[in-house]
């Protein structure tokens, strides 16, 4: 008669919490062989914001989100930002209503992004958000 593997008996209690997930190992015979927990490791998701209130066609704002002021009649704005990689997505939202100023597109590059516009008749604030594509 073949010897049966012993049945694993888990320690009484909870497995998993808000900072740990439950882990279980099942042997080749389909039986539970161990139970435990493993820490959940999350990346830092804090958002740093930056603002440039000087109207112009370029600014350095090293933050994942922020706002810049496009000068009246400008058709492009270069945002220098150490958070931006060429593969990232950069979102832009005009932060005020201007009947003439329209954000056409955003071209991210290594360390910067170029925002292209139909020129506004007045200075136009634009909010941005860098979305990491990893």
Protein described:
By secondary structure, this protein is mainly β. It folds into 2 domains: 15-45, no CATH class; 49-131. It has no helices and 10 strands. The chain has strands at 20-26, 32-39, 49-51, 58-60, 65-70, 76-80, 89-94, 102-109, 112-118, 124-131. It is rod-shaped. It starts with 19 loop residues before the first strand and ends with a strand. The mean pLDDT is 86.
Write the layout of secondary structure elements.
Blueprint: E1 20-26, E2 32-39, E3 49-51, E4 58-60, E5 65-70, E6 76-80, E7 89-94, E8 102-109, E9 112-118, E10 124-131
How many helical elements? 0
Largest sheet entry: 4 strands, mixed
- What percentage of residues falls in helices of 4 or more residues? under 10%
Overall domain count: 2
Classify the oligomer. single chain
Mean pLDDT: 86
List keywords for this structure.
single chain, 134 residues, four-stranded mixed sheet, 10 strands
Question: What's the short story on this structure?
Answer:
With 134 residues, this protein is mainly beta. Helices cover 0% and strands 46% of the residues. The strands form three sheets. It has a four-stranded mixed beta sheet, with no helix packed on it. It has a four-stranded mixed beta sheet with strand order 4-6-9-8, with no helix packed on it. Strands 1-2 form a two-stranded antiparallel sheet.
